[in-house]
Amino acid sequence: MCMVEIGIVGKPNVGKSTFFNAATHAGAETAGYPFTTINANNAVGFVRTDCVCRELGVSDTPKNSKCIGGVRFAPVNLIDVAGLVPDAHKGKGLGNKFLDDLRQAAVLVHVVDASGSTDSEGTPVTPGSHDPIDDVLFLENEIERWFYSIFNRNWDKIARRVETEKKDFARFFEEMFAGIGITESAIHQALREAGVDGGSPSKWGEDGLYQFSKALRAHSKKMIIAANKTDAAGAEGNIERMRERFPNYTFVPTSSMAEFVLVNLAEKGAVKYIPGDSTFKVTDTSNLSPKEGKALDMIQAKVFDRFGGTGVQECVNKAVIDVLEKIAVYPVEDETHYTDKDGRVLPDVFLMNKECTPFDVAERIHTDIAKHYVAAIDAKTKRKIAKDHRLKQGDVVKIISKA
């Protein structure tokens, strides 16, 4: 079963792998020098959403996800890739590998050192001496140049076939570059924004192709900014400057190290904390070292008191719910007891496209289920719903199939 893929991106040494570890508990290697991450790390993270168990008055037994106190965590795949440096699209650093690892990511979380304490190569410098605005611009540029270099290799062939065979540009282009996760919708948006004619690609010239590549990056590799290291001096002011400079981006102040500390202490039973909470509580002081106690005091004062949380879970949620506009839907086999064939209550939660249909859910379960689709039932109302009925957040649905 396919999951939403989120790319965790940024230059080296900004806290990407710590963010990844905090969001997934995967244990990726971290260190205070560039290129600690060489091969992409993949692990399951989660989107936090209110579980329907409370609304339905049942105790659930999740299978593909987890529920903590009425909060359901739906799975997504996180990809932590090698740090990107300027001219990565030309192969500098680990650039080609970085970009190839991001081909199928539906959305990117760009981790930026908001304190300005790492230069463009990821080398530690005096805090405040590097402008994080430059990091946002450089990542945009590298992905745009990567797109351009891929398209430019085959442009004569594309232009010739579109013009001589009268092919629909968007459909043909999507098929030609299916491996980098672009859609017809994004292509149409990019054509309009770049001001180029899809019927005459041979007339675009280098500038037209680059403007198209730039627009396509914005619509096919959407991004939010994790303004990391918020506990460091100067970070808060830099975040406000970045928000003013890039009004179309969502900025989330984050402290990936604070989240990493909290989730590990919660696993030890020393604190009560659910990822995404705006508070935490020490529950067992005997399970805390003096160093950990001081760390919690710092996290409270410099992170929670100032920003209301670590921001890590918020980043994942905003990437999936706000940017990709996904909703949580619960498929069941018994609409009376909300169970699967093994009696598990609300066993699965799927992150589906906004306004998806019961047939879309059937396809997500299995192609054979969709092929032999008969009907669907809204488990909350016990009524049949149409094949093209638009589902909403928190719907529970039974698919009836001959398969």
Structure, explained:
The protein is an alpha/beta fold and 403 residues long. The protein has a domain of 75 residues: Beta-grasp domain (Ubiquitin-like (UB roll), Roll). The chain is 38% helix and 19% strand. The strands form three sheets. Strands 1, 2, 3, 4, 5, 6 and 7 form a seven-stranded mixed beta sheet that branches. The chain has a five-stranded mixed beta sheet with strand order 11-10-14-12-13. A hairpin with an 8-residue loop joins β8 and β9. α4 packs across α8. About 3% of the residues have low confidence.
Radius of gyration: 23 Å
In the predicted model, the low-confidence regions spanning at least 5 consecutive residues are 27-38
CATH topology of the domain at 327-401: Ubiquitin-like (UB roll)
Question: What is the terminal separation in angstroms?
Answer: 18 Å
Helix content class: 25-40%
Could you give a short account of the major beta sheet? 7 strands, mixed
Task: Note the total helix count.
Answer: 14
Gross CATH architecture of the domain at 327-401: Roll
Our estimate of the beta-strand percent is 15-25%
What is the element layout, followed by pairings?
Blueprint (H helix, E strand, L loop, with lengths): L4 E5 L6 H9 L16 E10 L2 H4 L9 E3 L2 E10 L14 H7 L5 E7 L18 H22 L1 H10 L4 H8 L7 H11 L10 H16 L1 E7 L6 H11 L5 E3 L2 H13 L2 E2 L8 E2 L7 H18 L4 H12 L2 E7 L17 E4 L4 H8 L1 H5 L1 E6 L4 E3 L10 E6 L2
Parallel strand pairs: 1-4, 1-5, 5-6, 6-7, 10-14
Antiparallel strand pairs: 2-4, 3-4, 8-9, 10-11, 12-13, 12-14
